[in-house]
């Protein structure tokens, strides 16, 4: 990892969490949208994250741990914790290898859940039976998702601030 590796990783997370927060805001804004250009009610959207290096979190953990005899790639992330971790951190974790990567947004997918049906015969989008199809969006779920995005954004911003402080302290030592 180079000297700016932490900033690169945190920067990628800041971009990904910003997209996540935007999607949550869009979901909340369209919670009562009964008619879209595609037809039907608005569908909730989800953000899909992926490690930038194409690896999984499990592979990153396996690379960081020594004594990987009980942990092998492809056994499933659950097995890491159920089987316990044998060994400690391998070698120098500040060394160039292994280098964990950042995160990227690979897509925004629409939720496939069925719309909610509410009886409102006076609504212009009501069917012949008087029911209107509304998006299946729970404001509490959206708020929890937004809080998670906000917390993650804040943690990555703090990591960047901490690294900047380390750079400044190092430069002060060289004076």
UniProtKB/TrEMBL annotation:
Where do the Flagellar basal body rod protein N-terminal domain residues begin and end?
Answer: 7-34
- Coiled coil feature spans: none
Ion transport as a keyword of this entry, yes or no, is no
Q: Which PROSITE patterns match?
A: FLAGELLA_BB_ROD (PS00588)
Which Pfam family name is an example for this entry?
Flg_bbr_C
Q: What is its main location?
A: other
For biological process, the GO terms are:
bacterial-type flagellum-dependent swarming motility
Q: Which UniProt keywords apply?
A: Bacterial flagellum, Cell projection, Cilium, Flagellum
> Which InterPro entries does this entry report, sorted A to Z?
Flag_bb_rod_N (IPR001444), Flagellar_basal_body_rod_CS (IPR019776), Flg_bb/hook_C_dom (IPR010930), FlgC (IPR006299)
Q: Does the keyword Plastid apply?
A: no
Its Gene Ontology cellular component terms are:
bacterial-type flagellum basal body, rod
**NCBIfam families recorded for this chain?**
FlgC (TIGR01395)
This protein's assembly is summarised as: The basal body constitutes a major portion of the flagellar organelle and consists of four rings (L,P,S, and M) mounted on a central rod. The rod consists of about 26 subunits of FlgG in the distal portion, and FlgB, FlgC and FlgF are thought to build up the proximal portion of the rod with about 6 subunits each.
Q: Which family does it belong to?
A: Belongs to the flagella basal body rod proteins family.
Q: Which protein is depicted?
A: Flagellar basal-body rod protein FlgC
Naturally occurring in which organism (per UniProt) = Tunturiibacter psychrotolerans
């Amino acid at each position: 990892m180079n000297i700016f590796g932490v900033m690169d990783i945190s920067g990628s997370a800041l971009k990904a969490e910003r997209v996540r927060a935007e999607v949550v805001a869009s979901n909340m804004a369209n919670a009562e949208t009964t008619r879209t250009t595609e037809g039907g009610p608005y569908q909730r959207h989800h953000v899909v994250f992926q490690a930038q290096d194409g690896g999984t979190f499990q592979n990153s953990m396996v690379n960081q741990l020594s004594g990987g005899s009980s942990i092998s790639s492809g056994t499933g992330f659950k097995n890491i914790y159920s089987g316990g971790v044998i060994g400690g951190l391998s070698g120098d974790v500040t060394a160039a290898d292994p280098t964990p990567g950042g995160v990227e947004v690979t897509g925004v997918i629409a939720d496939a859940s069925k719309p909610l049906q509410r009886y409102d015969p006076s609504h212009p989008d009501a069917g012949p039976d008087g029911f209107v199809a509304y998006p299946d969006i729970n404001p509490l779920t959206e708020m929890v998702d937004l809080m998670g995005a906000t917390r993650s954004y804040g943690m990555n911003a703090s990591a960047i601030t901490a690294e900047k402080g380390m750079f400044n302290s190092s430069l002060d030592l060289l004076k």
